[in-house]
Amino acid sequence: MMILCSMFFPYLVVGFIVIDCVRVVIHTANMIPGDWANMCQAVWRSPLLPLQKTDDRVEDLTLGSGARFKRDLLAYLTEYGPKKTGPLVEQLRKYDFGAIRAALVASVPSKQKVDDLDSQKKTLWGWPALKDIMRQIPPAQKTTKATTPHIVTQISSVATLGQTDKWLKDVMFASLSPASTSTRQPKYSIIFPTADEIRRSLNGYGSGGSIHMKLQSAAQQKQLQYMRPYLRHWAGDHDTAEPSHTSKQDAGRRRAAPHIKTYIRFSDAEKMDTIDWAMVTSANLSTQAWGAAVNASGEVRICSWEIGIVVWPQLYVQDTESATMVPTFKRDTPEPLENKDSETTPDTVIGLRMPYDLPLTPYAAHDTPWCATAQHLEPDWLGQTWTLD
């Protein structure tokens, strides 16, 4: 077995198994022991992909198809340049990606002209790619005008987004939920750990070096002010937490500090029992990762390399069949549905293993996000303090 992984794409592994098959693995962990030991991470694995039997077949570039995934993955790898990834790209061209059911969403350092964005002709990057994908995902069966969807962003780093919420609302949130007349505008939440949750994590303050939100300057405090209404706890089990009238569904990850990055749209903000789509990615909440707003030249500028996947229920069934995706807790597969004979029961139920508990716990007025560039003199559960050199 040959594994390819390097500093140039730390979130992507390509494994060739006896050269007859290949598997693509996308993960949120860096290739360092600490990330894989006591931090919460996510991994997406493709099925084993065989060699293509013929080179002359017509490729279906429908979003979510294996052929579209292959085109976008090879485009991403090609951006590293022929010396770094040329041989890998040529090798991967020989394999059949038809078994994959997912959409690739990636970022590369680039400038994209908004007038030239056409995902049928070429791979898009950053938030333009994300927005294009969201426009094409079919609405979930349970999503109606009577329910309010809930989009939950869960990340390990928040960069400088500006002193107003313009980029957050007009670029990021707008990309996650393009305008629709068939559903209500979504509710938005952002999960980020507090200093108290880092203190009580498996590595205590040692986990904090991988999790970032700067809070010291006046501009950073302004950013925190407009983000605060969206902020939700990672663990939500602190002593001063408001008592919940709904029983918690325990994901079993409270003490594992989050290096994972997920973006999930729940069909109903009240119940949060079905999922319209889910994304696992290396991309945190930043203009560097997703791209800045369109500039005066009509361009979107992206600075960093990122990669992730988006999945949704209808990918896993035929057009005439129904499917639903549900959150699962401490297990990979969903519980058997009740009322199996009901006409509304879907043909297929797909489980999405949750990294955090539901329902979510909002920040209280005194709660502060973890800040790795500030001193924390209160000892963690290991007796450590966090001081700056």
Give an overview of the whole structure.
With 389 residues, this protein is of the alpha/beta class. The chain has a domain at 105-353: Endonuclease, Chain A. It contains eight helices and 20 strands. The chain has helices at residues 33-37, 66-78, 82-92, 126-136, 166-176, 195-199, 218-227, 287-290; strands at 2-4, 12-17, 21-27, 39-40, 43-45, 49-50, 103-107, 110-113, 150-154, 157-158, 187-191, 212-213, 231-232, 257-258, 262-266, 275-281, 299-302, 306-311, 323-328, 348-353. The strands form six sheets. It has a seven-stranded mixed sheet with strand order 7-18-16-15-9-11-13. Strands 1, 2, 3, 5 and 6 form a five-stranded antiparallel sheet that branches. It has a two-stranded parallel sheet with strand order 4-14. Strand 15 and strand 16 form a beta hairpin. The longest helix is centred in the N-terminal third of the chain and has 13 residues, at 66-78. The model is unreliable at 1-8 (pLDDT under 50).
